Amino acid sequence: MLKKRLIAVLILRDGQVVQSVRFKHTNVIHYDAVHAVECFNKWAVDELVMLNVSPDSTSREGFADAVRRIAGQCFVPLSAGGWINDAAYAETLLRAGADKLVLNTAFHTHCDLVQTLSARYGRQCIIGSMDVKLQVSGETTVMVNRGRDDTKIAPIDWARRMVELGAGELFFNSIDHDGARKGYHLSALQAVCQTVDVPVIAFGGVFTWQHLVDGLNAGAQAAAAANIFHYTEHSTRKAKRFLAEAGIPVRSE
Amino acid sequence: MRYCARCLYPENAKPTIIFDEDGVCSGCRYHESRGRLEVDWEERLAMLEQILEEARRMARARGNCHDCIIPVSGGKDSHYQVWLLKKKYGMNPLLVTFNHVYNSPAGLRNLSNLVEKSGCDLIRYTAGVDAVRRLSRFMLQTVGDLTWHYHAGIRTFPFQVAVKYNIPLIVWGEHGFAELTGIVSLEDFVEFTRWTRKEHDMRGYEPHDLIGKGGITLHDVAPYIYPTDEEIEKTEVRGIYLSNFVDWNAKEHAELMIREWDFAPVAYERDRSFNLHAKIEDHANDVHDYLKYLKFGYGRATDDASMEIRHGRLTREEGIAQVAHYDHREPKTLDTYCEFLGVRKSEFYSLVDHQRDARIWSRDAGGGWAPLDAVTRHAIGPEEEKQRVRQVADRTFSEANRHLYYNLANPPKATGNPVLDQQSLKFTAL
Question: Is A240 touching B (CB cutoff 8 A)?
């Protein structure tokens, strides 16, 4: 049976690891992400995802440097995303040591780029990231451009479209749940998991280890979290043990 | 330089800071969150009691008489932590001190006072003075820190003791970095982690990174080697911060400890700040803080005034006046520490040259260093007006607070104890 994965996410803004709360950056947790990675490495995490959430694209080079430094310390698969809007930068990140690319807005504005990258590097290299949000109309739609622009597209349609364009895996996030400590947006997550046949990574809102279990039970292949893993000693290892005790098949330490 | 619209912190404040869209820093937001409606302090105290009960249960099961460790320096927070756990919650804490070595007479008086008043057992580790000198010299020239040994020591030694004596709980006071500049929020119930120890307290250096540098040996760094993951897990030790469970108010706690246990502030004017009751245990703190000014353009008066502003006890204008008076002053103990480290004063300054933040320091025409900016140069505009804190009646420089804060116009009364009334320029290792 395929094991479920536990993923630590590092949210980087101008090279520093920040807490994200509903896509606002409230605190700088680490001035150097390498310190966090040293710990996660030892604490049984299965993968790392680094996201560049800096407000402007001048951050691209600095982010690639951070990927390079972390790749040198990191012994698990590493994914990187944020501001990937041309093939050259995608290559820069891969050469810096990223194993997979996380693309979000590109699925809206640069569909040809996504297709090219998927054809060139293989679909296993492309993670389609989606940020869903409950709108005032009562509908849940997908937002792009760091949560600013509403595509007005429903999550399941968006998920299907990302897979058609070449995503080998999806990274699900909810802007309303992000950093809100109430668990994943389970209904939307479940709908997405039921729609596509590629693995879905659940993200956004974890505050207890049970939330990780809930996300995996909703159909996700991997449970991801950011803020929570920075708060306690041996966090990812404890989370992994909780998953195992809850009967979830995970890679043993 | 951008400064917080509420307190006086600059954007290069350490360890990390971030401003929100209103121009308010993460430290102010952390402070403000204490008063929010959704923070239920009764519920948090109940959580603390549960953690303490669990520690007592584990101690009984292990046949241990100590149920927790409290790392103490002898300062106001140490007094309060021990008082709260012992008197209010009936714990039997083992006090653990990592000797600063650079102790002031007032600091030694207060540590001794704490041990006597609390009746608790104490373990105190004193690193060899030669090793301290080597570490201090190396850290001074690499990162501008001559107090690395005790910051590293106090974050490491309690865990060594926990592992050795099989004690499952370490109780810290406030989450110091969060109180200053943010980092985490109150909702996170953050616990001690080895990475804040390495990244912030130890400036990115683990002991093994230092061996062979500046004559530093394995023996020199032994006190700073953290137990292994396996040892930590076997002991099941965790480190909690009381400030997550107790509505932390350092001034109130200091007053309480002055009343209850005779904690003593100093009564002389300090070189680097108007605060008379915090960080008085060692002299090197002044040089340490002066280095912060030389590197980043702000010092302890900014820290202390920012805290007073957040509490509404000082206005922004009053805080800025304190910064203008203290932040640039060279401490009198600089000579003492240069002598200890074996560097001339001119050498001390040249060691700092490469560490000056280019965002705030530049060379002037005469080749000297001049700050490019300071909070004192910023007029109070609409953004700052909007962020003003409601002022409280308890003014920092009121008569009632005369013993806690040095008021230039109305200095504190002498206590009659020379240890508290006169600034000492020498330190005492033991």
Answer: no
